[in-house]
Design a protein that fits this description.
alpha+beta, Alpha-Beta Plaits, four-stranded antiparallel beta sheet, 28% helix, globular
């Protein structure tokens, strides 16, 4: 079964187009390293919770939008190998060079993790 890397970030709303451009460059690197699919989702209906919520998780301010993203890998070994290669590529590939392709958000507030799917339901199955 596939393996999923999930990310939640707060992006200045004014940087939406810059974020899209950054993702279009950076996400191709994941595809080149074996990812099957990447979704970058701009917050549209992200309610405040009573105890916690997406906004609080990334300390989003009033002028920021929450972005929820995930990368689907064929399996965990492919993902682990890709992460190892990214370390090497950071010195060779401009897509990974943060000076040439800077993140249009505060990466210190990003939350992320790797997830093993345990249930899969899809239409037509």
């Amino acid at each position: 079964m596939s393996y999923i890397d999930g990310f939640v970030i707060a992006v200045p709303t004014a940087n939406k187009q810059q974020f899209i451009e950054h993702a279009n460059v950076f996400d191709k690197l994941f595809i080149d390293l074996g990812a099957l699919r990447i979704l970058e989702c701009w917050g549209d209906d992200v309610p405040d919770g009573k105890l916690t919520d997406f906004r609080r998780a990334v300390q989003a301010t009033a002028d920021e939008t929450v972005v929820f993203s995930w990368v689907e890998w064929p399996d965990k070994p492919t993902r682990d190998a890709a992460m190892g290669r990214m370390e090497q590529l950071s010195k060779q590939d401009d897509r990974y060079n943060m000076e040439k392709n800077p993140m249009p958000f505060d990466g210190r507030r990003m939350i992320y993790g790797g997830f093993a799917p345990v249930v899969k339901v899809q239409a037509g199955a």
